[in-house]
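Readers of this paper often ask what the protein records in our data store actually look like. Such a record has a labelled line for the sequence and another for the backbone structure tokens. Nothing more is needed to write down the fold, since each code stands for a local backbone conformation. The remainder of this section carries one protein's record, kept here as part of the documentation.
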Amino acid sequence: MTFDPERVNFVGLHVDEESSNQLLQYLKHQSPEVLSRVAQAVSPEIKQIISQNVQGLIGVLPNDGFNVQVTTDRENLAGLLASAMMTGYFLRQMEQRMEMEVSLTGSMSFDTGLHDND
């Protein structure tokens, strides 16, 4: 399942004037072409990680021998989707960081940033 900018309707989303969501306002003014380009920038690795994350959140049984159906309410589904979206944003930022590090240093650093004070 991929993002389809032709099927999304940011214009129809309600935003309170007092707490105006600047990102939503920005999205409403973007062309479908821009949204499509951004959506296509997601690597297969990110798609795979998000898919595994969502499967882990809802539980996964092997396809052979099981016909799994998941039932939930609106709030829990919204939470699941929000989690998947946040995971995607985080992973894309880390992917960009990795690409920048490789372009600057020529290799990836696996330094955790944690150092013992012994």
Remarks:
- The chain has two domains: 1-41, 43-105.
- The radius of gyration is 19 Å.
- The chain has four helices and no strands.
- The first helix runs from residue 22 to 28.
